[in-house]
Structures are given as C-alpha cells and as structure tokens.
Design brief:
By secondary structure, the protein is α+β, with helices and mostly antiparallel strands. Helices cover 33% and strands 30% of the residues. It is built from 10 helices and 17 strands. The chain has an 11-stranded mixed β-sheet. The protein has a 4-stranded antiparallel β-sheet with strand order 1-3-4-7, sandwiched between helices. A hairpin with a 2-residue loop joins strand 11 (218-225) and strand 12. The radius of gyration is 20 Å and the shape is elongated. It starts with a strand and ends with a strand.
Length: 317
C-alpha cells in the first residue's frame, strides 16, 4: 500500500537525488530551483513511499485557500516517478493522495501534467490515473516543440526563416555564450513592455541567483555585432531529453536583420549534435489556452516545431 507525507526542508538531499534518477524529472524540481521564491508560496510538496518505505514518487506542490496546486511557481509539474513505478502503483498514489487531502481539509487538487517532450521514457501513467480519479481538464496550452533526434519525420524549416539566417550571417552577426544577463534583460524588458505591457516572469536578480545555482542548466546565448547584443535567449537545459527556450528577444534592429532565425537554427544544430531529443519553445496562449497568438506560434512553427500540450486538471476532493 502506498503511503505519503509532507516534504520538509531536511528531505532536500533525498528529494534531489530522486529527481535526478527519475524518468520525468527536470532541474526545475530540484529544491535549489523550487525554493528560490519560497517567500511567495506555502510549500506543500508530497513524498510517496511503498510498503517497504522506499521513496517511489514526488509531487512538487503548494497550498493556498484550501487548494493543493501543482507548484504555482513552476511551468509544469505532476508526479515525478521512477522507471520502476507501474500503472497500478500510480493509481494507488492518487488514491492515497486524495485520502490525505480530504483528511487535511483540502477542497480541490489542481494538477499540472508534465508535457511529454520532457519524459526520458514513456511516463503517462498519471493521465490514466487522472481519468480514473474523475479529473476535469481545466486548461490546455499548446507549446511548439522541435524534434531534434529519434523521430522518423522532421518538419522542414520555412524559407523565410532560412532567409533570416542568411541575412544575419551576411550582416556579420556572431553567436556567443555570455553571463551578461543585465544587457539581455534590458532588451527583453523593452520588448515585453512595448508589445504586451508586461514584465518578465523572473527579475534580473532572480535569474542571476538561479544561474549561480545551475550554471550548466541555465545558459544565456547572445547574438552580437561590433560588441553589442542585438538579441539572445535564455536556454533551460531541462534534462537529458529536452531543452527549453525560456526567453527569446531581439532589438528592433536585430529583428530586422533576422538574428533570432540565426540564433535558433544554431541552437538546433548544437543540441541535435549533443543528442537531445527536443527543443521546446513554450506556449503561445492566453486565458488558459482559450486564446491562441497565431503570429507567435507561426514563427515557432517556422523552425519545424509542432504541437505539445501543457495540461492542468482539477480533482474535487
């Protein structure tokens, strides 16, 4: 029988070891990442054990107003499980979790499902358990994911993206890895404010902190000319299967010169050679998926990306 208990800070080493050995974990679930904004969330993560008290699953989560959320500070979540966990055991995890939540006075459980591009091997036992638990789909966001390795079909890069690459190369742009997050943040903040009246999800100080904790997983790539950055992106090396473009922006001049076309195709080549399976651009939605930014997703699809969904479910306790 599966049992569970609430995570405590003293569990951090065991938690992190399990994430690193799991079949669907990413570095976002490591406590050094999850806890950087612990002042904003009341953590209520759960740890699941089998009948021999061996750790078999984790659930990154926080609580708010009688609701358990797949951690609201993370883009995706759900159960982090090992290759040893099988469907019947995952069903037991959901049964035990629902009993625990009822006993502790929770009214609902919001469950963010891990997108399949981050799975290092098949890991959709939770979707079956969600259906068996009577979960309702609360939101569905569509991301754009580029296949890099292991597929039989690879959509072609559009001609206009190739023209952008040629234009940037002819203009003399170069690509380099950098730690000058401040320079890139100025470009990004100007873009977001001008186009959407928004600020980045992470402040510059937060990103500098996260980069200091995960320098191999969080990389800043800039496109420069004459020593000045005209565009760039923050790359999250999520795990051995997938990389994620967390932020990608360019100056007005950089956009005109096709610097993002050069940047993304270069990264595709780099990570394809390194053996990664997917490069995920993230979703192009608003209003929980009800609005699709067709111009934004068309740009991403132009690099050969196709749909991956980010689902959030609600379970009534």
């Amino acid at each position: 029988m599966v049992s569970l208990r609430r995570y405590t800070a003293s569990d951090a080493p065991q938690w992190d070891r399990f994430v690193e050995d799991s079949k669907n974990g990413t570095f976002l679930f490591l406590r050094g990442y999850m806890d950087y904004h612990s002042n904003r969330f009341t953590d209520h993560s759960l740890m699941f054990y089998d009948e021999k008290q061996r750790l078999i699953a984790l659930l990154p989560a926080n609580e708010k107003d009688g609701i358990l959320y797949s951690h609201q500070g993370l883009t995706y979540g759900g159960l982090v499980i090992s290759t040893k966990s099988r469907a019947a055991e995952v069903l037991e995890m959901f049964t035990s979790a629902k009993a625990y939540l009822k006993e502790n006075g929770f009214k609902e459980w919001y469950y963010k499902q891990m997108p399949t591009c981050y799975h290092q091997c098949p890991s959709e036992e939770d979707e079956y358990a969600l259906w068996r638990s009577g979960a309702k789909l609360e939101s569905c966001l569509i991301s754009t994911t580029i296949p890099l390795n292991g597929c039989t079909i690879y959509p072609e890069i559009e001609r206009r993206r190739k023209r952008g690459v040629a234009k940037a190369e002819e203009a003399g742009y170069t690509i380099k890895e950098s730690t000058d997050y401040e320079q890139f943040w100025r470009i990004m903040e100007a873009n977001l404010m001008d186009r959407y009246s928004l600020k980045p999800v992470h402040t510059l100080q937060e990103m500098l902190l996260l980069h200091s904790r995960f320098p191999k997983n969080i990389r800043l790539i800039l496109v420069t000319k004459d020593g000045k950055a005209e565009g760039g992106c923050v790359v999250y090396v999520a795990n051995d299967a997938c990389i994620h473009i967390q932020y990608g922006h360019a100056t007005p001049q950089g956009k005109q010169d096709g610097v993002l076309d050069l940047l993304y195709t270069t990264l595709m080549d780099e990570f394809r050679k390194a053996g990664y399976r997917y490069m995920d651009f993230g979703n192009s939605n608003e209003q929980g998926g009800k609005y699709l930014n067709e111009n934004l997703i068309a740009q991403k699809e132009g690099f050969g990306g196709r749909g991956t969904v980010y689902k959030q479910w609600i379970i009534t306790i």
